[in-house]
Amino acid sequence: MRYMLLIYGDESAWPGEGSPEAEAEMAEYYAFGNALEEAEVKNTGEALLPTSAATTVRVRDGETLTTDGPFAETKEQLGGFYLLDCPDLDDAIKWAARIPGARTGSVEIRPVMEFD
Question: Which domains does the chain have, with CATH numbers?
Fold first, then answer.
């Protein structure tokens, strides 16, 4: 079954780009990605730019409305995701717990709806 692992964290607490802390964290993510590939469970994964780069789209009465930023203000923002093909939820939880961002934020696991 495919599972989307959504990584949330407080982007104001993320280390600055190019800092030693950011480089150390990215090294952990690269190692995690390599482990996923070796286990042959990774379909894809990406990091996202901060919410300041987001645009939200709504259509109301046939009119397209856009808003800068995410849909709602929250304490934690979506920072990236992995799409994994795991045998079951327990395996997806095992992988989610290894994501570096799980130590300071949270990882939401969502099963992917499969269509025939």
Answer: 2-111 (3.30.70.1060)
